[in-house]
Design goal:
Structural class: alpha+beta
Largest sheet: 4 strands, antiparallel
Strand content: 25-35%
Number of strands: 19
Radius of gyration: 34 Å
Length: 380
């Protein structure tokens, strides 16, 4: 009973209809994912989309479409596809083994064996001897496109045993690809890191605003840093306007430049298994904090993203905390950039007068410290 149920289940999992449905679901899921911002709920683009699509957001969040390619439905479809491919590969391998044995037997067959075991006979003119019969048969088969070889008194046309292994090898290779991608996600890490022009940031978990790392990814073995050397607002390459493009350098653990390159769509920076893209740009505001006596407290960079839902047209990526000497949080400081407007719409670019385009906001959390915030531009 169990064996019968397993055969029926295996047959269903290997069926072309079931596999076609899986491919269709994966394709549709991937297409839908391209129209929905990917990332955690706190990411500005995700939050803005959720606010603009209030009726759809509960369904999208439930299905995990904001993290479409690590969600349970997507991974379940991929797992079923891998299982189906494995079963299909094994079935095709068994067929290939049987056919290989048949081809080897046919290759080794002699005239005595063919005389004793054959599927059909062709009557020949009694006046023809064996040599004439072989010559006529060879010419006829060659005319029909069948290539034959003569071994003594036997004509043979046998396919290479390797010919039957094409389909199994393809299916096992497809399964290996799925396995490598799945296992690679255990060691893989990717995310979004904000880097100001002229700034260098270590390739460490703390440097990322959004990070997805596999459970086996070892940050202690990562010894490199990233630096943005320049930012061109209108870069042209090959006669094509590439738009705003940064120049990015990858540095080793000692600060030596490994590679420097312009980065824009379809032109990623590759160093070994590392790939760097520049999907978005925003502002980097350098904040210089002083106490009431004019003494410098410290400097910090506030990253600011464009936003469709805020009054200024921008939103801070993450507020900056100000701490006292004992480590207690005294103040939370954030900055937004007041963008220029046309026809009531914010222009997502550097304001015409950047010197007055910054608006600080701060909230005191404890004590009586009243700081003064000064801001200067570090580039778009």
């Amino acid at each position: 009973m169990i064996a019968k149920a397993w055969r029926a289940t295996s047959k269903f999992l290997r069926s072309s209809g079931f596999v076609s449905v899986l491919f269709a679901l994966i394709a549709i899921w991937s297409i839908v994912a391209t129209s929905i911002p990917q990332g955690v709920a706190t990411l500005p683009s995700v939050a803005a989309w959720a606010k603009a699509h209030g009726s759809l957001e509960p369904v999208v969040a439930f299905l995990g479409l904001h993290r479409a390619f690590t969600s349970v439905p997507f991974l379940a479809c991929v797992a079923l596809l891998a299982l189906s491919t494995a079963l299909c590969s094994w079935e095709r391998t068994k067929v290939a083994l049987v056919r290989t044995r048949v081809l080897r037997k046919a290759t080794a067959a002699g005239s005595a064996q063919l005389a004793a075991e054959h599927d059909c006979e062709i009557a020949c003119d009694p006046s023809m001897d064996g040599s004439a019969i072989l010559q006529t048969a060879s010419a006829t088969l060659q005319h029909l496109g069948v290539h034959v070889k003569r071994r003594g008194d036997v004509l043979a046309s046998v396919s290479s045993p390797l010919a039957v292994w094409g389909s199994p090898v393809f299916h096992w290779a497809l399964l290996a690809t799925i396995a490598v991608v799945a296992l690679g996600s255990l060691w893989r890490a990717d995310g979004l890191m904000a880097v100001a022009v002229g700034q260098t940031r270590a390739d460490a978990s703390a440097s990322y605003g959004v990070i997805n790392a596999g459970p086996l990814h070892d940050w202690s073995k990562v010894k490199r840093a990233f630096r943005v050397d320049a930012f061109e607002t209108d870069y042209r390459s090959g006669g094509i306007d590439r738009g705003p493009v940064p120049t990015v350098s990858v540095l080793d653990g000692g600060g030596k430049v490994i590679k420097t390159q312009h980065v824009y769509p379809n032109m990623m920076l590759h160093v070994g298994s590392l790939s760097i893209n520049a999907p978005v740009f925003g502002f980097a505001v350098t904040m210089s904090l002083e106490d009431t006596g004019g003494a410098g407290v410290g400097n910090s960079i506030q990253y600011v993203d464009f936003s469709q839902v805020t009054t200024d047209g921008t939103i801070p990526v993450a507020p900056i905390g100000i701490y006292d000497t004992s480590g207690g949080l005294r103040l939370i400081v954030a900055a937004s950039v007041v963008l220029d407007r046309t026809n009531g719409q914010a222009i997502q670019w550097m304001p015409a007068d950047p010197s007055s385009g910054c608006r600080p906001t701060h909230r005191r959390t404890s004590g009586s410290m009243v700081p003064t915030a000064r801001f200067c531009w570090s580039g778009p």
